[in-house]
């Protein structure tokens, strides 16, 4: 993908994703205002993880496994590519229906495992609202299929817009139903929102001429062969979701509101990731697949460029969240049932989640690289290792740091996994000494800039007049951090800034 096309695509997807994520932010704020960090909120956030966890295997098999095969097959024959997608898409849709049936039958033991710290009343409520949300899995599967096909065709707009539809539905459900029906109304909103995500994409997806194909027996060997190929991807994806599950399982044994605090902190963490970084990852993925098919040199060049952009874009957000997390939480959530005490406990989690923001984004990007290379087993092992690290550290650190320890455990596990993944790719690249020295030098520049910006932001925060309200403080600090970061990046001649400088320079003449 050309640089100009990449910038335009990322920009468009960023704008659309930004609208969706702002609505998602509004959604979380409204949920916080109605439920705060109460028992009901804790129950809802645990229950909402069930359909997500069950869907993960199917969704990842589609996005990271079937879509590269679809693109590879399409390079040979459009007709064969459509046939493959119809067969495998239908098969996974049937699997999702079977998953729903099993989950509905075994909801009670599932909740018992996921929330060992819940009392009988909380567990009963969790079972009921989980059963309301579980059918959303079939709509998530349909959405994943349509999103994968549209993105493979480099149509990014509608998939990016689908989150907006979901958030609008959940907001309406919360406002209209929560006062009367509590978390039941919110759960219905989640179900309808999942349906809306697919419906918004359906008109464009229909043009791809991909339909149902139930001839599983005739194509049994092909399905088995492909599913065996995908099992490391599926296990890796489940492992990633297990990190969230571990966080919530451990937090159910802490003080009331701990599950909710982790959720709200996680939502704040993923706001910049989703608005700025996920569009970049989404737009680069087809190019990563194409690069892997062409040569490893081309592939690694895209990985290097993407990783540099992600690291560079993540750092100012990380600094802002670490230094001014309490203000951000107060602005985002502190109203209604969300008290100042809820802000304090949420900030404990946000502080240590934010420290790992770069690695949360980088891990997803690097995993896509391994899927494109079909190095799925190594990706799987790295995810399983990260889960083990997260479990051990979460249990140990939560005893002395409560929710902060759980968040720190997640950040450390992400850091370790990123080092392992990138180290493997770098060794395969067989980079010369000049490249390694350049990479180290560039990293040292960015770290030095981050340190200087952090010191400047802390100094500025301490010098701010006490009479300023939270919004003004946050705006001033945000402008200072981003302005100083960009200025120092230009002064230090950070390589990642070069394309932007060239583009602005051309427009100035």
From TrEMBL:
<keyword id="KW-0472">Membrane</keyword>
<feature type="transmembrane region" description="Helical">
    <location>
        <begin position="306"/>
        <end position="325"/>
    </location>
</feature>
<comment type="function">
    <text>Involved in peptidoglycan biosynthesis. Transports lipid-linked peptidoglycan precursors from the inner to the outer leaflet of the cytoplasmic membrane.</text>
</comment>
<dbReference type="InterPro" id="IPR004268">
    <property type="entry name" value="MurJ"/>
</dbReference>
<comment type="similarity">
    <text>Belongs to the MurJ/MviN family.</text>
</comment>
<feature type="transmembrane region" description="Helical">
    <location>
        <begin position="223"/>
        <end position="244"/>
    </location>
</feature>
<dbReference type="GO" id="GO:0034204">
    <property type="term" value="P:lipid translocation"/>
</dbReference>
<protein>
    <recommendedName>
        <fullName>Probable lipid II flippase MurJ</fullName>
    </recommendedName>
</protein>
<feature type="transmembrane region" description="Helical">
    <location>
        <begin position="446"/>
        <end position="464"/>
    </location>
</feature>
<keyword id="KW-0961">Cell wall biogenesis/degradation</keyword>
<keyword id="KW-0812">Transmembrane</keyword>
<keyword id="KW-0133">Cell shape</keyword>
<keyword id="KW-0573">Peptidoglycan synthesis</keyword>
<feature type="transmembrane region" description="Helical">
    <location>
        <begin position="132"/>
        <end position="150"/>
    </location>
</feature>
<feature type="transmembrane region" description="Helical">
    <location>
        <begin position="470"/>
        <end position="492"/>
    </location>
</feature>
<dbReference type="InterPro" id="IPR051050">
    <property type="entry name" value="Lipid_II_flippase_MurJ/MviN"/>
</dbReference>
<feature type="transmembrane region" description="Helical">
    <location>
        <begin position="83"/>
        <end position="106"/>
    </location>
</feature>
<keyword id="KW-1133">Transmembrane helix</keyword>
<feature type="transmembrane region" description="Helical">
    <location>
        <begin position="183"/>
        <end position="202"/>
    </location>
</feature>
<feature type="transmembrane region" description="Helical">
    <location>
        <begin position="403"/>
        <end position="426"/>
    </location>
</feature>
<feature type="transmembrane region" description="Helical">
    <location>
        <begin position="378"/>
        <end position="397"/>
    </location>
</feature>
<feature type="transmembrane region" description="Helical">
    <location>
        <begin position="43"/>
        <end position="71"/>
    </location>
</feature>
<dbReference type="GO" id="GO:0009252">
    <property type="term" value="P:peptidoglycan biosynthetic process"/>
</dbReference>
<keyword id="KW-1003">Cell membrane</keyword>
<keyword id="KW-0813">Transport</keyword>
<feature type="transmembrane region" description="Helical">
    <location>
        <begin position="345"/>
        <end position="366"/>
    </location>
</feature>
<feature type="transmembrane region" description="Helical">
    <location>
        <begin position="264"/>
        <end position="285"/>
    </location>
</feature>
<dbReference type="GO" id="GO:0005886">
    <property type="term" value="C:plasma membrane"/>
</dbReference>
<comment type="pathway">
    <text>Cell wall biogenesis; peptidoglycan biosynthesis.</text>
</comment>
<dbReference type="Pfam" id="PF03023">
    <property type="entry name" value="MurJ"/>
</dbReference>
<dbReference type="GO" id="GO:0008360">
    <property type="term" value="P:regulation of cell shape"/>
</dbReference>
<dbReference type="GO" id="GO:0071555">
    <property type="term" value="P:cell wall organization"/>
</dbReference>
<feature type="transmembrane region" description="Helical">
    <location>
        <begin position="157"/>
        <end position="177"/>
    </location>
</feature>
<dbReference type="GO" id="GO:0015648">
    <property type="term" value="F:lipid-linked peptidoglycan transporter activity"/>
</dbReference>
<feature type="transmembrane region" description="Helical">
    <location>
        <begin position="12"/>
        <end position="37"/>
    </location>
</feature>
């Amino acid at each position: 993908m050309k640089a100009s096309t990449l910038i335009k695509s990322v920009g468009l997807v960023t704008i659309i994703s930004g609208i969706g994520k702002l609505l998602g932010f509004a959604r979380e704020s409204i949920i916080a205002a109605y439920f705060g960090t109460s028992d009901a909120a804790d129950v809802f956030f645990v229950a909402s993880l069930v359909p997500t966890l069950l869907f993960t295997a199917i969704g990842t098999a589609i996005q990271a496994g079937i879509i590269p095969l679809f693109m590879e097959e399409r390079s040979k024959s459009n007709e064969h590519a459509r046939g493959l997608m119809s067969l495998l898409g239908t098969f996974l849709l049937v699997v999702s229906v079977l998953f729903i049936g099993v989950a509905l039958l075994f909801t009670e033991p599932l909740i018992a495992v996921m929330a060992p710290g819940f009392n009988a009343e909380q567990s009963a409520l969790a079972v009921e609202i989980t059963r309301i949300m579980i059918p959303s899995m079939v709509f998530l599967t349909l959405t994943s299929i349509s999103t994968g096909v549209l993105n493979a065709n480099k149509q990014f707009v509608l998939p990016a817009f689908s989150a907006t539809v979901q958030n609008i539905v959940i907001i309406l459900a919360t406002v209209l139903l929560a006062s009367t029906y509590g978390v039941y109304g919110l759960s219905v909103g989640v179900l309808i929102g999942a349906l809306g995500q697919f419906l918004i994409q359906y008109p464009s997806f229909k043009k791809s001429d991909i339909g149902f194909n139930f001839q599983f027996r005739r194509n049994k060997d092909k399905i088995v062969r492909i599913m065996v190929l995908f099992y490391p991807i599926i296990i890796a994806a489940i492992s990633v979701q297990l990190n969230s599950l571990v966080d919530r399982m451990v937090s159910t044994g802490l003080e009331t509101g701990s599950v909710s605090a982790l959720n709200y902190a996680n939502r704040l963490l993923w706001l910049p990731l989703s608005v700025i970084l996920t569009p970049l990852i989404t737009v680069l993925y087809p190019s990563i697949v194409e690069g892997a098919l062409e040569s490893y040199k081309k592939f690694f060049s895209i990985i290097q460029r993407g990783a540099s952009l992600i690291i560079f874009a993540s750092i100012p957000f990380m600094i802002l969240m670490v230094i001014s997390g309490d203000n951000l939480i107060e602005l985002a959530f502190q109203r209604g049932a969300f008290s100042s005490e809820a802000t304090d406990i949420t900030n404990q989690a946000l502080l240590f989640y934010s420290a790992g923001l770069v690695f949360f984004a980088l891990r997803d990007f690097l995993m896509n690289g391994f899927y494109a290379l079909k190095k799925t087993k190594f990706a799987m092992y790295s995810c399983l290792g990260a889960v083990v690290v997260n479990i051990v550290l979460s249990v140990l650190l939560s005893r002395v740091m409560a929710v902060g320890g759980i968040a720190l455990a997640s950040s450390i596990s992400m850091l370790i996994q990123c080092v392992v993944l990138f180290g493997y790719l770098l060794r395969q690249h067989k980079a010369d000494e000049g490249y390694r020295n350049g990479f180290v030098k560039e990293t040292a520049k960015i770290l030095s800039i981050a340190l200087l910006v952090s010191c400047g932001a802390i100094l500025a925060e301490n010098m701010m007049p006490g009479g300023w309200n939270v919004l003004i403080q946050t705006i001033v600090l945000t402008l200072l951090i981003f302005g100083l970061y960009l200025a120092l990046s230009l002064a230090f001649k950070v390589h990642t800034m070069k394309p932007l400088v060239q583009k602005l320079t051309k427009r100035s003449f």
